[in-house]
Design goal:
The complex is a heterodimer.
Chain A (H helix, E strand, L loop, with lengths): L11 H26 L6 E8 L10 E4 L2 E11 L5 E8 L11 E6 L6 E5 L12 E9 L3 H20 L4 H16 L4 H7 L2 H26 L4 H71 L12
Parallel strand pairs in A: 1-7, 2-6, 5-7
Antiparallel strand pairs in A: 1-4, 2-3, 3-4, 5-6
Helix pairs in contact in A: 4-5
Chain B lengths: L13 H27 L6 H16 L2 H25 L3 H42 L9 H42 L6 H11 L2 H31 L12 H20 L1
The chains are: A alpha/beta, B mainly alpha.
């Protein structure tokens, strides 16, 4: 079999060797690529996230920061305290985005996969250390569904109660219908407001009477020799009376001016009287001193009694 | 002989046929083991065997690889477009790439490579058997010595068929991975990180080992089962019809079994 057969293609062994090497290289390259893609050649640090529920968390899922995958879940296990420990491998190059104050969330949407996200509010805080342990906040859209259903059910029951034929709204609507029927009736709003057509008719009759009454009153008040004419004459008389009263008041005013002059004179007289009294007081003091002088100079008389003049 | 033929015969002969059936499977496994051992033994690789294996590899892989890869690329391109457009219309485009990789690279391409190699191997066996018959060896009168010689001659063919499946699957997988990238991100290099991450997420250790194991098992099945079936036919002096490849049903059954087992391990 070592001799080449007549119909054998050329360089069969070389071609086979090339193929073997090429496929071997392809397989090795593929494995290296997969290992690179799995992060085997990447330096990582671990982060343990503690959650209450591991639902939706699978090894291999990404942890994202601002939408960029920075870590990968390596392992999910149940701790001794009943909490779920999610071990996340974070590439050293991307670990700078995680700080001691970073917050981690696990969001589960109704459709699609669960998402593990990291938020760093203050990027100047100290970096997250290796083997750190952090709680993870869980945002579960499906957890809201039972509560939502309960609320919706209550809402629907209320709606049903509202739309029943004997409900308040039903009665109100019936009344509104009656009302609109009356509004469209002969007496319209008036009949509706008064409660019936008969009452509206009565009101209209009353209004007609009031109208007649007003016509009569007009004649009596504004007509010839009516109340208004009498009133005008009275007003004229009152005008004359007021003129007289004004003259009288002017006289009283003059009297008061005179009285004011008398009062001024009296005040002047009172001021002169004060001065006079001062002078009398001074004279008296002089006399007093004179008497004291005489008494001192009068040797025989030891009577200390002072006799006023 | 298929096991279901037991219902058409007398119960007294059931044990005999069941034993023969089990022996058939055992011989198949044995041939596979022998082929593996011979492939790994340095003494096998003398010049004659190397030349024979080279010829088989040339026929089963070198001549087929470009056309198969081209065909797979075309079909895959259609499937990738369908998946992408559908996913985009439902707003699920971020799952499209993962689905393409999972469906095409992990499942469809290894299976189609195995089926293609099996078809190709079947044609080669037919020609080989016809050649054997022309050489003056009636199949009915095959002796143990002949069978041994045949087995020795078959080993390079077995190896080349296994290699063929592996090559076709790997080359097509790489081409499909490239096509998927180009379809999703275009010619821009900026999607490479995201793409690598997605590929990394799909190919976790279990999936990767499963993918490799499945491809290798497909290769072995395609290589061993028809050869074993041919030997079995010659051994029992059964009539050999060149229009029907021996062991075709058994091969299909085994391929489906491997595929189902792989799916079960991965997703159940």
């Amino acid at each position: 079999m070592a001799e080449p057969l007549p119909d054998e293609p050329k360089h069969v062994e070389t071609k086979a060797l090339i193929l073997l090497v090429a496929i071997g290289a392809l397989i090795v390259a593929f494995f290296l690529y997969v290992m690179y893609a799995r992060g085997v050649f990447q330096e990582t640090q671990t982060l343990t996230l503690v959650a209450d529920d591991s639902e939706g968390v699978i090894p291999g899922m990404d942890m994202t920061f601002a939408g960029f995958p920075i870590g990968r879940v390596r392992q999910v296990d149940l701790g001794q305290d009943g909490k779920v420990n999610v071990l996340v491998d974070i590439a050293r190059a991307d670990a700078k985005w995680l700080r001691t104050t970073s917050v981690f969330t696990l969001e589960r949407s109704v459709v699609g996969e669960t998402r593990l996200r990291a938020y760093s509010g203050i990027l100047t805080d100290p970096a997250l250390p290796d083997k750190a342990q952090r709680p993870v906040l869980r945002g579960d859209a499906t957890a809201e569904i039972p509560r939502l259903l309960a609320t919706a059910r209550t809402l629907l029951e209320n709606l049903e109660a509202l739309t029943r034929p004997d409900s308040a709204i039903g009665n109100t609507l019936n009344n509104v219908e009656t009302l609109s029927g009356r509004l469209n009736g002969r007496y319209g709003v008036l009949g509706t407001a008064l409660g019936g057509d008969a009452e509206a008719q009565q009101l209209l009759q009353t209004l007609r009477r009031v109208d007649g009454l007003l016509a009569k009153a007009d004649t009596r008040v504004f007509g010839k020799d009516g109340v208004i004419d009498d009133t005008q004459a009275a007003i004229k008389e009152l005008d004359g009376l007021l003129l007289d009263a004004r003259g009288t008041l002017q006289k009283v005013d003059a009297v008061l001016v005179e009285a004011q002059g008398v009062a001024a004179n009296t005040r002047t007289a009172t001021q002169d009287l004060g001065k006079l009294r001062g002078e009398v007081d001074a004279s008296l003091r002089k006399v007093n001193r004179l008497v004291d002088e005489i008494n001192r100079k009068w040797p025989f008389k030891r009577d200390t009694e002072i006799k006023l003049p | 002989m298929p096991l279901s033929s037991l219902i058409y015969m007398k119960p007294g002969r059931w044990a005999h046929h069941a034993a023969r059936y089990a022996r058939g499977w055992w011989r198949m496994l044995h041939l596979g083991a022998v082929a593996l051992v011979m492939a790994l033994s340095p003494s096998t690789w003398n010049r004659a065997n190397r030349a024979a294996t080279s010829r088989h590899i040339h026929a089963s892989t070198w001549q087929v690889l470009p056309w198969f890869t081209l065909l797979t690329a075309l079909v895959s391109l259609v499937i990738i477009r369908i998946v992408l457009v559908t996913a985009q219309s439902y707003g699920l485009s971020r799952f499209a790439l993962e689905m393409v990789v999972r469906v095409l690279v992990l499942e469809l391409i290894p299976l189609s490579a195995a089926l293609f190699a099996a078809l190709r191997a079947g044609m080669a066996f037919d020609a080989g058997a016809m050649g054997l018959a022309r050489a003056g060896m009636p199949a009915r009168l095959a002796t143990e010595e002949t069978l041994l010689r045949l087995r020795r001659d078959l080993v390079p063919q077995v190896l080349s068929n296994a290699f063929s499946v592996l090559s076709l699957a790997m080359a097509s997988s790489v081409v499909v991975l490239l096509l998927a990238y180009l379809n999703v991100y275009g010619l821009s290099p900026w999607g490479l990180d995201d793409y690598t991450r997605t590929v990394g997420r799909v190919f976790d250790p279990v999936i990767t080992i499963g993918f490799v194991a499945k491809t290798v098992l497909f290769g072995l099945a395609v290589a061993v089962i028809p050869s074993a079936a041919l030997l079995e036919t010659l051994r029992h002096g059964g009539r050999y019809r060149s229009t029907v490849q021996p062991g075709a049903l058994r091969l299909l059954f085994v391929l489906l079994l491997i595929e189902a087992g792989s799916l079960a391990v991965k997703y159940i």
